Structure to design on (326 residues):
């Protein structure tokens, strides 16, 4: 996919609504030059004074690295979008989060903070400093999509901002806000190219989502190092990074076009019912299939996958030059 776009053609910014990114990490520090990060009180939604926010734990730093860690620098890892900027929007309370190793049950937030963060990110859409915004929410909880959260998401999508959300890690129904209308929910695959057993699933994934690698993903860690991370939390930023690549090459694309490009380029993982909502189990389990950066970027640039002969980019070899011999 990077042969088509590395994220530098048009400015894009991935807003990480999460526990707060470690902006001092050497792979991430340059990503915040043109953006303004904020912490929002989870209950009231009021922005706090300690900005940029200090991380509540390492979760957001790991998410951010998957999406946009600096690349081609001989250090650590490569983020999905080399050229994307980052915006850290902290919505979790320090008291509820372990200092390291945030767990699904160990960090708490509320709708007001999430809504405020969404609205804040959208306010920068199409500005010179931020460019095209992609929202990543590697968070969620049980139950239906809250009405107020849905309103904020609907406004974001109407403003042209794709909203990427982790599907959840309980193996059951897609968590909210991954089940909200207009979002792109993301499940997780493992190194065997199968859907991880913990990956949440359901008709929302079939209709609107896809899956991406989410088991033992090497990424940035709080304090400047690297770590292996597992969960749909780390599959989602892969898709957010690819969304940023798509928008960098096609800045006029709407969220619906970004979704169609992601899903249209997704690769089959070989189970009956692939990509068809309600047909077999794969649609509910893996959405449109596993994210494929090359296929989706080719689809974005070419507008079609017609004539696509395989998974590898065709290379034209010149006819060999053979000088006459005596």
């Amino acid at each position: 996919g990077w042969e088509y776009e590395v994220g530098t053609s048009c400015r894009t910014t991935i807003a990480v609504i999460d526990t707060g990114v470690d902006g001092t990490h050497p792979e991430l520090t340059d990503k915040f030059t043109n953006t303004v990060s904020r912490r929002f009180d989870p209950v009231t939604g009021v922005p706090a004074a300690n900005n940029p926010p200090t991380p509540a734990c390492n979760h957001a730093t790991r998410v951010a690295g998957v999406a946009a860690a600096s690349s081609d620098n001989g250090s650590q890892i490569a983020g999905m979008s080399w050229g994307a900027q980052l915006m850290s929007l902290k919505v979790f309370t320090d008291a509820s989060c372990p200092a390291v190793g945030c767990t699904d049950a160990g960090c708490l937030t509320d709708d007001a903070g999430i809504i405020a963060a969404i609205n804040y990110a959208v306010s920068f859409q199409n500005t010179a400093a931020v460019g095209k915004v992609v929202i990543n929410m590697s968070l969620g909880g049980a139950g239906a999509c809250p009405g107020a959260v849905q309103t904020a998401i609907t406004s974001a999508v109407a403003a042209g901002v794709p909203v990427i959300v982790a599907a959840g890690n309980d193996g059951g129904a897609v968590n909210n806000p991954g089940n909200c209308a207009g979002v792109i929910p993301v499940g997780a695959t493992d190194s065997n190219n199968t859907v991880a057993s913990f990956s949440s699933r359901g008709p929302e994934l079939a209709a609107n989502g896809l899956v991406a690698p989410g088991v033992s993903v090497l990424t940035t860690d709080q304090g400047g190092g690297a770590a292996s991370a597992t969960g749909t939390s780390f599959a989602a930023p892969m898709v957010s990074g690819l969304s940023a690549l798509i928008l960098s090459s096609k800045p006029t694309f709407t969220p619906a076009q970004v979704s169609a490009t992601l899903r249209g380029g997704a690769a089959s993982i070989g189970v009956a019912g692939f990509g068809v909502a309600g047909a077999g189990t794969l649609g509910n389990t893996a959405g449109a299939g596993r994210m494929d950066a090359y296929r989706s970027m080719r689809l974005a640039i070419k507008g079609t996958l017609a004539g696509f002969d395989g998974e590898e980019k065709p290379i034209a070899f010149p006819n060999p030059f053979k000088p006459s011999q005596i």
